[in-house]
Amino acid sequence: MKVLRFFLSIAVLLVASVLLIAPASAQATRTWVSGVGDDANPCSRTAPCKTWAGAISKTAAGGIINCIDPGGFGTVTITKSMTISCKHVEGSALASSTTGIIINGAGIDVVLRGLDIDGSPPNLPGVNGIRFLQGASLIVEDCIIRDFTGASPNGNGILVNNTSLVTEIHVSNTNITGNARNGISIEPSGSGGSMLFVKDSVLSNNFVGVRGSTAATTGAVDITVTDTSAAGGGAQGFSAAAGTGALRMMLNRVTAANNADTGVRSANANSIVRIGSSTVSGNGTALGAVTSGQIESYGNNQIDGNVSAGTAPTAVGLK
Fold first, then answer.
1. H/E run at residue 16
2. For 156, how many CA atoms within 13 A lie in the half-sphere containing its CB?
3. Pairwise CA distance, residues 148 & 142, whole Å
4. Distance, C-alpha 236 to centroid of its chain
5. What DSSP letter does each residue of 49-65 carry, written as one string?
6. Which own/partner pairs from 291-296 qualify as long-range (CB within 8 Å, at least 24 positions apart)?
């Protein structure tokens, strides 16, 4: 009888230990970071972490990391579905000699909201602001991404080069400026394809504002840009350069202005750009369709004040 009581006591202690340990190790659906936090903390509202990287391991898949107060929260690699939201405070990442945020997880959905991603240290320039390697979707809202000047093929505000499956990228109300290569570049490889949607955003002083390429993929890339400007670039405002895969770009109510080379460019036979209700002004060349690239106009654009008019677009009717 005493032996039975002993084993029952041990069993009760083991169950109690599991119950006590489980809550401490469980991941939270919402975690917090603070400029005065500590990554040894549980990342709760009252005991926040110091960095986004520190908070990720304590945040459940599909969870949210919020910023309590302004701070620099470091660079991070995201491998599971989640949201990082610092819309009402200054949530910054200073990316010295590295990429600000990397997304790399099969089938994941990521939201980045209200972030300031800065690659500007002059002696240690940032590589890319955001790099999307793998996942189902990315939403970038209300962000600033600036001054990434890493050597090509880096130096992008947002670089999407997924290797398989089709991914959706949504960018809205975001300012992307001063990047040495592209503001946004969609260039999947292998069998990967991408869909990019940009609205209500400013792309300024990047070498190219928005660029799509299918040079390394058999998949298709579809780009839709509305109510967005691409200005002051060293090359093109909007550029579509197809390879094997089809590349389709729709521009509606956009501005391509003061770009040194071309306002809107379409290169190669599988590339088509359609433009309507838009302004193309102050560029070296307004429209450039090269090596069998296609540009179609709905006939309601303002194209004037460029050094050269370039390629006359094919007229298509409003439907």
1. helix 2-25
2. 20
3. 18
4. 19
5. BSSHHHHHTTEEEEEEE
6. 291/267, 292/268, 293/240, 293/242, 293/265, 293/266, 293/267, 293/268, 293/269, 294/266, 295/264, 295/266, 296/272
Q: What's the angle, vertex CA 169, arms to CA 226 and CA 263, rounded to 5?
A: 40
pLDDT at 8 over 90: no
The three-state secondary structure class of 225 is strand
Tokens read off for 50: 């110091």
Partners of 294 in the β-ladder = 272
φ, ψ for residue 6 (rounded to 5)?
A: -60, -50
Q: Which DSSP string corresponds to 22-33?
A: HHHHSPEEEEEE
CB 129 within 8 A of CB 119: yes
Does this model's pTM top 0.70? My answer is yes
Q: 292: pLDDT confidence band, cut at 50, 70 and 90? A: very high
Q: Map tokens 């089709």 to a residue.
A: 166
pLDDT tens digits, residue range 32-67? 999 999 999 999 999 999 999 999 999 999 999 999
Is pLDDT above 90 for 241? yes
Report the largest interatomic distance among the alpha carbons of the chain, rounded to a whole angstrom: 99
In sequence order, which residues have a C-beta less than 8 Å from that of residue 303 and are 6 or more positions away?
279, 280, 281, 286, 287, 309
pLDDT greater than 90 at residue 234:
yes
